[in-house]
Design a protein that fits this description.
Blueprint: H1 3-12, H2 18-27, H3 33-40, H4 49-61, H5 67-77, H6 81-94, H7 100-109, H8 113-126, H9 132-139, H10 144-156, H11 163-167, H12 175-184, H13 191-200, H14 206-222
Helix pairs in contact: 2-4, 4-6, 5-6, 6-8, 7-8, 8-10, 9-10, 10-12, 12-14, 13-14
Length: 223
């Protein structure tokens, strides 16, 4: 992108109109990470939460060496739990293995379930099997969305020794939990997984059936 366009975006990010700033952030999709990150940093402390949230997300997409430490600092110190959750999510996008430690701390120490949920999802994105025990703990949450996140993440980290733990959700009253289970089981080519998927392929909810059939097809291709 030519410098005049970057200058225009930079000026737009300084506009008093928050809509202009949001549009400027959106326009950074076509900008290289090296050019985009300095511009994103201009609105990381914006007075409008939606602008800040979009900027934090952008740091997970436009990846430079600067992004990781900025996101970790936001995750650990920002007073707004929504921004901390956004930072946790962005760290998952970075897929930097160093993020395992701060994401784990956020899961165990943050008092807001949304931050803990976002951390669990991102630990799955990292694909780090060290997260298994943490995710097993997340399965015990009273929040069904946390259970969904944990089931999906256990599938992503391919924790084969946790299959029995997630199989007990095959009869969950929440069909979204059953759907996540059907998707997660597609990562495990075992007799137990295939048997459970055949059971879920007969589920009363069409989305669960479709997810189970898709996972079964994936496993058949692996054979």
């Amino acid at each position: 992108m030519i410098s005049t366009d970057l200058e225009q975006i930079s000026l737009q990010l300084e506009s008093e109109n928050s809509r202009d700033r949001l549009l400027a952030l959106a326009s950074l999709r076509q900008v290289s990470a090296e050019d985009a990150v300095p511009l994103i940093k201009k609105v990381l402390d914006d007075e409008i939460l939606q602008v800040r949230s979009m900027a934090v997300f952008a740091l997970g997409v436009k990846q430079t060496d600067e992004c990781y430490p900025i996101l970790v600092k936001l995750l650990e110190t920002d007073p707004d739990y929504g921004i901390r959750a956004d930072a946790a999510g962005a760290l998952g996008y970075l897929q930097d293995p160093r993020a395992y430690e701060p994401l784990s701390r956020a899961f165990y120490e943050d008092t807001q379930w949304l931050v803990r949920f976002s951390a669990a999802v991102s630990l799955g994105n990292l694909g780090d099997v060290r997260a298994k025990n943490l995710l097993l703990q997340a399965l015990e949450s009273d929040e069904t969305v946390m259970q969904q996140a944990a089931i999906a993440a256990i599938g992503e980290i391919r924790a084969f020794d946790a299959i029995d733990e997630i199989l007990r959700f095959a009869n969950s009253e929440d069909w979204l939990v059953r759907q996540r289970l059907a998707q997660a089981l597609g990562n495990f080519n075992t007799e137990k997984s295939i048997s459970a998927l055949k059971f879920l392929a007969k589920d009363a909810q069409s989305q669960v059936r479709e997810a189970a059939l898709f996972s079964l097809n994936l496993l058949e291709q692996d054979n």
